[in-house]
Amino acid sequence: MTQTPNSAPVRxxxxxxxxxxxxxxxxxxxxxxxxxxxxRFYRQRGDDxxxxxxxxxxxxxxxxxxxxAGETVADFVAHNAERFQALxxxxxxxxxxxxxxxxxxxxxxxxxxxxxxxxxxxxxYKRSYTGLYCVGCEQFYKPDExxxxxxxxxxxxxxxxxxxxxxxxxxKYTGQLRDLCRQGTIRVVPHARQNEISALIERxxxxxxxxxxxxxxxxxxxxxxxxxxxVIYVWFDALANYITALxxxxxxxxxxxxWANAQAREHVIGKGxxxxxxxxxxxxxxxxxxxxxxxxxxxxxxxxxxxKISKSLGNAVDPAVHARRFGADALRYFLLRHIRTTEDxxxxxxxxxxxxxxxxxxxxGNLVHRTLSIIERSCGGVLQQPSPDLIxxxxxxxxxxxxxxxxxxxxxxxxxxxxxxxxxxxxxxxNKYVADQQPWAHAKAVAAARxxxxxxxxxxxxxxxxxxxxxxxxxxxxxxxxxMPSICTELLRKLGLEGPNDGQRPELAGARIAAGIPLFPMxx
Length: 524
Known about the structure:
CATH architecture of the largest domain: 3-Layer(aba) Sandwich
Number of strands: 16
Strand order of the largest sheet: 3-2-1-12-13-7
Distance between the termini: 38 Å
Radius of gyration: 27 Å
Largest sheet: 6 strands, parallel
CATH class of the largest domain: Alpha Beta
CATH superfamily of the largest domain: HUPs
Structural class: alpha/beta
CATH topology of the largest domain: Rossmann fold
C-alpha cells in the first residue's frame, strides 16, 4: 500500500555529471537509465524521491575541446550541455533537476562555501607539486598506476605538470574512512568495488590537489577564495554539485530535506571515478561536517567491439539514433537486461535488433496482442470475475503473484538485469499457458454449444483462461514500469486500467480492453 507523503522514505538519487567536451554517448546513457529506473521504482512504491543529473563544465578538458573547435568555452559548453539536457526526451528520463556547473547560480556560492568550510577545519593548504596528469580523466596518476606508461582509462600519454596548487588533507581522514568502510556506513556496490576502496585506504591515502593555475585553465573555472591566480580543481568543484543543486550555500531548504534528513543518498557512477566518490567526496563531506552518501552503485563500461565507448576514443554511439528507431523503452530494456549491471558489456546493433524482435516483439508483444485480440473478438472486450475454481487451481496466477516481491528484491540490490530476467520468466510462462489452455478453442466451444449449460461451461473456461493471462499482463506492466514506462502506460491503457489508482491495483473485471496496434512493430 502506498505510504502517505509525510511517512514516505526520502531518497536522493544522482548520476555523475559528465564532461561536456562532446555529445553524449551510449555509455553515459546506460548510467542515466540506471538512475532513472531506480528513481521510478522508488516513486512507484511511494517514496519521496529527487533525481539529479547535470553537466561538468569547469574543466581543462572542456577548455581544450573548445579551443580545438574554434569556439569560446562558454558557447562550446552551452551547446554540448543542451545535448545532455535533451536526453530526458530521447531516453524517457524523469529528472527532477539538472545542474550546469558553469552557469547555475546555485553552484559557485556552494562551492565557495564548501571550500571555506574545509579551510576552517585546517584541511586546505598550498604547496608546489609535480605530477603526471591526464586531461581526459582530469586526474594525476602515479607511475605505478599507468599501463605501459599511458593512462589506463584513455590509453593516452600523460602530461608532466609542475605548479603550485592548493591541496586537501585527505591523509588526515585515512582512519575515519577505514572505519566507515569496515562498518559499511557507505556501501559500494558491487562488493568487489568495495574491496578495491578498502585496499586503497589500507595502502595509505595521500593529500590531493584541489586547484590549478588560472593560467593553465585559461581563466575558466571558479576562483579559489582569496587567490585569483588559482581556480578550483574539477573534482572539488564537480563533486559539490550533489549538494549545491540542493541549495548548499544559497537556499538550503532542499538540502535539509534531501541530504541532511534523507534516509538514502545514492550516487550512480562509472567504475573509473569510484575513488573520487567513495574516498575523496566522503573526506570532503567529513571536513565540512555534512552527512555522507549511503550507497554508491558502480556500473561497468559499455563497449563496442570490445573497446570502451568513449568520446576520447572516437567510438561513441549516439543513443538518440537508436531510441528514435526502436523507441526509448526498447533501448532502455536492452541496456538494462543485456548489460549486466555492475559488469562491462558489449553493445552491437545486431544484438539489439535480435533482442527487440525476439524478446520484445516476439515474446511480450505477441503475448499482449493475441490475448487482447481474443478478448475483443470473443468476449466483447470485457472480462468477468473469474470462477472460484480458477482462483483455487490456476497455475499462472501464483507465479504472477510472486513477481512483485522478486523484482523488488532485485532492484533493492541494483540487479536490473536479474529483475528483467524474472519478468521475462513470467512472460514465457504466460505464453506457455496460452498455448496449453488454447482459449480460441474455448471460444469455438461457446459458439458450438447446443445447450445453455454447455455454453455457460465453455464461456467460463474461456473467461477464466483469458482472465488469468490478462491479470498476469497487469502484474507484468506494473513490474516493468520503472524499466519501460511508456510501454507499460500503453499496456495498462489497452487493459482499460490507465489513470490514477490511489495506490490500489485497478480491477480488471469489467474494464474495457482493446488490443489496438502491437506494442512493438516487428519492423521498426
